[in-house]
């Protein structure tokens, strides 16, 4: 699998990943849907994708502002701040925010937002 992929490309791949059966390389988001295989670099227990607290995300005129602290995501060991421009988010399948961090805790690989959040 080629990495890193720009977020707009990931959004296009999400459609294909969503159509795959859960047994394909994707891992369970924990609430009845699966992360697209293109966003995953591990399994459900040690993967890089995880739901994050809604209060970690705020919307600004130019996109989502995400601030994560240790405990908000299992890979985060120090405060991390991200800006995700509108149009680079992927619709989450459960109404929660999720983020995939890869190859480091300081790099957003995929970001999921609930429907209607924009």
Description:
This protein is mainly beta and 118 residues long. A four-stranded mixed β-sheet has the order 1-6-7-5. It has one helix spanning 7-19, and strands at residues 49-52, 57-60, 63-68, 80-85, 90-91, 97-101, 108-113. β2 and β3 (63-68) form a beta hairpin. It has one helix and seven strands. The longest helix has 13 residues, at 7-19. Helix content is 11%, strand content 28%. The protein is globular. Mean pLDDT is 79; it is low at 1-5 and 8-25.
- The shape, in one word, is globular
Look at the structure and give the mean pLDDT. 79
Beginning-to-end CA distance, first to last residue: 30 Å
- How do the strands of the widest beta sheet line up side by side? 1-6-7-5
How much helical structure, as a percent, in the residues? 10-25%
The low-pLDDT segments are 1-5, 8-25
* Total DSSP E strands: 7
Tell me the major beta sheet: 4 strands, mixed
Gyration radius, in Å: 13 Å
- Compute the number of helices: 1
In terms of topology, how is this protein built?
Blueprint: H1 7-19, E1 49-52, E2 57-60, E3 63-68, E4 80-85, E5 90-91, E6 97-101, E7 108-113
Parallel strand pairs: 5-7
Antiparallel strand pairs: 1-6, 2-3, 3-4, 6-7
List keywords for this structure.
disordered N terminus, 3-stranded antiparallel beta sheet, 4-stranded mixed beta sheet, mainly beta, 118 residues, 1 helix
Give a quick precis of the structure:
The protein has 118 residues and is mostly beta strands.
